[in-house]
Write a structure and sequence with these properties.
The complex is a heterodimer of chains A (303) and B (503).
Chain A: H1 6-44, E1 47-51, E2 54-57, H2 61-68, H3 70-102, H4 109-118, H5 124-134, H6 141-149, H7 163-192, H8 195-203, H9 208-236, H10 240-246, H11 258-268, H12 272-297
Antiparallel strand pairs in A: 1-2
Helix pairs in contact in A: 3-7, 3-9, 3-11, 4-7, 5-7, 5-10, 7-9, 8-9, 9-12, 11-12
Chain B: H1 2-14, E1 23-27, H2 30-47, E2 51-55, H3 58-71, E3 81-85, H4 106-110, E4 116-117, E5 129-132, E6 138-142, E7 145-148, H5 158-161, E8 171-172, E9 175-176, E10 179-180, E11 186-191, H6 192-197, E12 205-207, E13 210-212, H7 216-231, E14 241-242, H8 249-257, H9 274-287, E15 294-295, H10 301-309, E16 315-319, H11 320-329, E17 337-340, E18 369-373, H12 380-391, H13 394-404, H14 431-439, H15 451-470, H16 478-500
Parallel strand pairs in B: 1-2, 1-3, 4-5, 14-15
Antiparallel strand pairs in B: 3-18, 5-6, 6-7, 8-9, 10-18, 11-16, 11-17, 12-13
The chains are: A mainly alpha (303), B alpha/beta (503).
């Protein structure tokens, strides 16, 4: 067996290692900007730290305190409540909107599609500011409309100051922001469903509901699962929208989410180590929810 | 695509950035930036140093600064100087004093800005010490005139010339980390035209033929009469006053009026003090229940000014800076407003009734800004010169008075004409003169890293009390309810402080 010429050896080396070389730039960036900070944040969460040169190892004390903190659990409850309300409303509403705008009987479909999607481009902070104005007491359009329709209620509903209305207000704003985006995904999925299946179902005597249930839903299922998953992650990471809308955490902490809790401790009270611990608990929370969703949807094969 | 990305990367890498300024200042206030831009050319001409102003939104500024301090970076990204808002500063004092990211300024404040007078006919305030330019001797202002003081070896420096109460918020263990730019005394302004139409004078109470200022409870009674007057004429959206229901800022302001700091410098909590309980309960029934007289305005300065223009809100707390918003957003209010000192609360305990608690200040303080030098600043002397130019000079102070409607923390400048002009918004009332009258009585405010937690706790207790009243809870039991909520909150905040305290 001969070792081959230098040129052949070079080709052999290249053949063996080229894949690694292609991956190397990404791997380097991934390690430097993702894995290393992640590892550092794990370390940080085990310390009480008040500055670059002042920290004390406290082991799992930050996690222990966090799990016993009623405010943390309130923030979890708020986040879960928001997630549930958001998904229950967002998925069917945006699917309905997509089906409506997929219909050939609707005029100016393209304009309407763009109009509904446009709200997604403005971002959380801008939406929060818009809704601060829309839902303002006395002067806000929503309250004025309510006062016009229901004079006995009047225009004094304090969406930002009354804990009963705080979460509905945030959900409303989040829906306004995100429905258009979900609608676009659904539209794409609806257009990918084979028309022949509808015709075959119609020939078999299937009504509208039966066609929707047995043709449309299975056809858009991967997108549906994707949107539920992405929507859940968005909801669990909610922060800017309520923080800007309430200019804080709302009445009786009704706008305090898990990320808000993290922010309060890390950037308002300056306890970065504790905030890192809260971040890791949030990570675990999201991972569990995502895993359960994927398992429940039987989607692991489809992604 | 690859070529394009490589080419653009190369361009970005080799492109020369903007010229780096000799001194960099981060600030969040647009009004301050506007005022400083007027002064900077003179500074650059005088010192030959260029100054870079980075106007950054308040939250972003804090997030970046906290991150940079935490990362231990000493140069490059950090500015030489930074302006911080009073509610944000506590977290920067979390480390031990030698690890705070800002430079202690005691030396600069104590060894510069010596007061000089041209002659003995110069104006002064009781207790001022100055060097007379004519004979270079030190004089003290006593009983309306300058008297030679052989016991003093130096005149007042900047540190003596600043309202003392304004230094506490920016200090830790005696070290001053920031120069206060303002006092922000608080008054109560009202729509004079609407109150006059209702035939109610909110400023005075007649008692046995003599006039005196009302207490808060008496003021609330006037507010109820005012609302009844307008409601009986079909104007139901007309509310006597503005008070926040969802945020504790105004409650904190009223507690400061009562000399209560929620978390003091030692970290001790004052949430269950008798005055706190009384104030929270009173505040709650100002914003909820049968005796409600106050509502929250829509967020932002514009909607707030609009509420006043529309007559939805007819009295409101006014720190000096709030008038700048009114001037910008509500010029149509010209001549329709008047300003008065804050009513005092009734004394706690058996002496209560309508007896005003004279230990309350007739004012409070709301907001505040400091300018500090970061430890990474390579030329702190230049930074200090810039502070003197921006914040201690005639032009700098006048510029901030015009742009931000801000009364400076340096008493000497209160004599300047700009602070004695009639205010057209207030029908010619000299509003700055009222602020000056109250400024020395403005309470001290202390800030620690746990102040934010204390304020959130206070806000939570207030929300609970408001909910109690909204559910029809009897006002008689409100104080007990407030006490129980504040006790609960105090226990929680104390636990957080115990957990988070490093030293």
């Amino acid at each position: 067996m001969t070792r081959g010429t230098p040129r052949q050896r070079l080709w052999s080396l290249q053949h063996r290692y080229s894949a690694y070389l292609f991956v190397l730039p990404f791997a380097a960036v991934f390690c430097a900007f993702f894995l290393y900070p992640l590892a550092q944040s794990v370390v940080l969460s085990l310390f009480r730290s008040v500055g670059p040169r002042q920290s004390r190892f406290v082991g799992l004390d930050n996690y222990g305190f966090l799990l016993r903190d009623p405010l943390f659990w309130l923030s979890v409850a708020n986040t879960v409540l928001f997630t549930v309300l958001f998904l229950i409303l967002q998925v069917p509403l945006s699917l309905g909107l997509a089906m409506l705008l997929n219909s050939e009987r609707i005029w100016f479909r393209d304009v309407l599609r763009f109009a509904f999607f446009a709200s997604y481009m403005v971002g959380n902070v801008f939406v929060a500011v818009i809704f601060m104005v829309l839902l303002a007491q006395r002067t806000g359009l929503v309250n004025r409309a309510i006062a016009g329709v229901l004079p006995s209620v009047g225009s004094e509903i304090n969406w930002r100051g009354d804990a009963r209305f705080a979460m509905p207000a945030v959900v409303l704003a989040a829906l306004w922001l995100s429905m258009g985006q979900a609608m676009i995904y659904f539209l794409a999925a609806l257009q990918a469903v084979d028309r022949d299946l509808y015709e075959a179902a119609a020939v078999d005597g299937a009504g509208r509901w039966a066609r929707f249930r047995h043709v449309t839903l299975p056809g858009i299922r991967p997108v549906l699962l994707y949107l539920v998953l992405v929507g859940t992650i968005y909801a669990l990471q909610l922060f800017e929208l309520p923080y800007v809308f309430f200019q804080g955490f709302g009445p009786r902490f009704a706008g305090m989410t898990v990320v808000g809790y993290l922010f309060m401790n890390g950037f308002l009270a300056g306890d970065i180590g504790y905030a890192a611990a809260a971040g890791w608990v949030l990570f675990v929370l999201i991972s569990i929810v995502a895993f359960v969703q994927l398992k429940a949807g039987g989607a692991t094969r489809e992604f | 695509m690859l070529c394009l990305s490589v080419a653009s990367g190369v361009v970005v890498a080799v492109r020369r950035g903007p010229a780096k300024a000799d001194v960099r200042l981060w600030l969040y206030s647009e009004e301050h930036a506007r005022a400083y831009r007027e002064v900077l050319p003179a500074f650059s001409a005088q010192t030959g140093k260029s100054v870079g102003l980075d106007l950054i939104p308040q939250q972003s500024l804090n997030t970046r600064l906290v991150s940079l301090f935490m990362s231990g970076r000493t140069e490059g990204e950090l500015p030489d100087l930074v302006e911080l808002e009073i509610a944000d500063v506590g977290k920067y004092f979390r480390p031990t004093v030698n690890e705070v990211g800002l430079l202690p300024l005691n030396e600069y404040l104590g060894n510069s800005g010596f007061r000089e007078i041209a002659g003995l006919s110069a104006p002064g305030r009781e207790g001022d010490n100055a060097r007379c330019q004519a004979d270079r001797r030190i004089y003290t202002f006593r009983s309306g005139r300058w008297v030679f003081n052989p016991d003093r070896d130096r005149p007042d420096a900047w540190i003596d010339r600043i309202v003392p109460n304004r230094l506490s918020a920016w200090s830790k263990q005696g070290l001053i980390f920031g120069v206060p730019l303002d006092v922000h005394p608080v008054t109560l302004s009202y729509r004079q035209d609407l109150w006059a139409q209702a035939g109610i004078d909110p400023e005075w109470v007649d008692e046995a033929g003599a006039k005196r200022r009302p207490t808060w409870r008496e003021f609330q009674k006037k507010c109820l009469d005012f609302q009844w007057f307008w409601a009986s004429r079909g104007v139901r959206d007309r509310h006597a006053m503005e008070l926040f229901e969802s945020q504790p800022d105004m409650l904190v302001c009223l507690l400061l009026q009562r000399r209560v700091t929620v978390v003091d410098e030692t970290g001790a909590l004052h949430l269950t003090d008798a005055r706190t309980v009384q104030t929270v309960a009173f505040y709650a029934q100002m914003v909820a229940g049968q005796r409600r007289v106050a509502v929250e305005s829509a967020g932002g300065a514009g909607p707030w000014a609009n509420d006043i223009v529309q007559g939805n809100i007819c009295a409101f707390l006014t720190p000096d800076w709030r008038l700048a918003d009114l001037r910008q957003y509500a010029p149509q209010l010209m001549g329709k407003l008047r300003m008065m000192p804050l009513p005092r609360f009734e004394a706690v305990g058996p002496a209560g009734g309508n007896v005003p608690d004279m230990s309350d200040a007739p004012t409070s303080t709301w907001g505040g800004t400091m300018i500090g030098v970061t430890r990474s600043c390579k030329h702190p002397d230049d930074a200090w010169k810039l502070i003197e130019c921006l914040d201690f000079s005639d032009t700098g102070i006048e510029s901030r008075a015009r742009n931000a409607n801000s009364l400076p923390a340096l008493r000497d400048y209160w004599d300047k004409p700009v602070f004695h002009e009639p205010d057209p918004l207030f029908g010619g009332q000299r509003t700055f003169e009222l602020y000056i009258e109250l400024a020395d009585q403005a309470p001290a405010r202390q800030e620690t890293w746990s102040s934010t937690l204390g304020r959130y706790g206070l806000g939570f207790a207030l929300n609970q009390c408001v909910a109690y009243l909204n559910k029809g809870g009897p006002p008689v039991g409100l104080e007990d309810y407030a006490a129980s909520q504040l006790k609960r909150v105090e226990a929680y905040v104390k636990r957080c402080i115990d957990h988070g305290t490093f030293e």
